[in-house]
Amino acid sequence: MSPFITKAILDFFIAFGIVIGGALVGGIGAVVSLQPPTQTMLDVADRIKIWALAAAIGGTIDPMRVIESNFFDGNLSPAIKQILYLLFAFLGAHMGSELVKWVCGGGRG
Questions:
Q1: What span, in angstroms and rounded, lies between the C-alpha atoms of 66 and 11?
Q2: What per-residue string of b and e applies to 36-49 under the rule 16 or more CB within 10 Å gives b?
């Protein structure tokens, strides 16, 4: 498999796992502290999405610098790759959040 696809898949699942794991552990903490776990899990899943995105792409601002420097130098390929990595990480975090909503019954229409 190409390195691009491999990294994109890893970014997706890292962000997905951070949201799911954070919500589950937050729910356990809610049970221990005698709070409603469902609402806590929903709140944590929504609040942690941006942090899951940041962690999936490396936890630093370097990907943004890569986009900026390559874009202004006229090298669009590395900039587009970084944007796609961000997109895959965002999709993973969003799908994790939606799964928590579905499991908790918060996604009912």
A1: 17
A2: ebeebbbebbeebb
Which of 44, 69, 45, 66 shows the shortest CA–CA distance to 57?
A: 66
**Three-state DSSP class for residue 2:** coil
Supply the range of the domain harboring residue 28.
Answer: 3-104
Within a domain: residue 109?
no
Using an 8 Å Cβ cutoff, are 26 and 41 in contact? yes
Number of Cβ atoms within 10 Å of the Cβ of 2: 7
- Yes or no: say if 91 and 56 are a contact pair by the CB < 8 Å rule: no
Give me 85's structure tokens: 């990595």
- Answer yes or no: are the C-beta atoms of 57 and 89 closer than 8 Å: yes
Question: How many domains in the chain?
Answer: 1
Digit-coded pLDDT (tens) for 11-46: 999 999 999 999 999 999 999 999 999 999 999 999
Chain-centroid distance of CA 48 in Å reads 8
